[in-house]
Amino acid sequence: MIRYQLFMKLFDANKDGGISRDEFAAAVKRIKPNRISEAQLRKLFKQADNDNSGTLSSKELKGCLSKHDAKLNTKKVDDWIKKHDKNLDGKLNYEEFIEFMLDVL
Q: Which residue ranges does the record assign to the EF-hand domain (predicted)?
């Protein structure tokens, strides 16, 4: 299911549930050859999830980003969490984390 969601996020630009030839061509141009894989994202999520809760708190996400030399201010990270926290629990589960990573990559 996650792969399908990632695929649709990348390709279905107008969110109509289908992928036109133009949408496909535009998405292929955007894809970078060094794009992070789903396995790498899962590994990154597990490494950041210090308490093994299955979610990332603001503190865990900031720690993960700082380990990877991402120089972001606290407010920016908190804003990103609010933007991607679909279930409004103040944390990012794996699917929300994927959305976050697609947004920032």
A: 1-34, 36-71, 72-105
Q: Which domain does 78 fall in, by range?
A: 36-104
Q: Compare 98 and 5 and report the one with higher pLDDT.
A: 98
Average pLDDT over residues 28-44: 73
Residues 58-67 have pLDDT tens digits of 999 888 887 7
Q: Both 53 and 17 in a single domain?
A: no
Asked if residues 14 and 28 have their Cβ atoms less than 8 Å apart, the reply is no
Q: Are residues 19 and 40 in the same domain?
A: no
Amino acid identity for residue 84 in this structure = H
* Nearby residues of 31 by Cβ (< 8 Å), 6 or more positions away: 10
Beta-bridge partner residues of 67: none
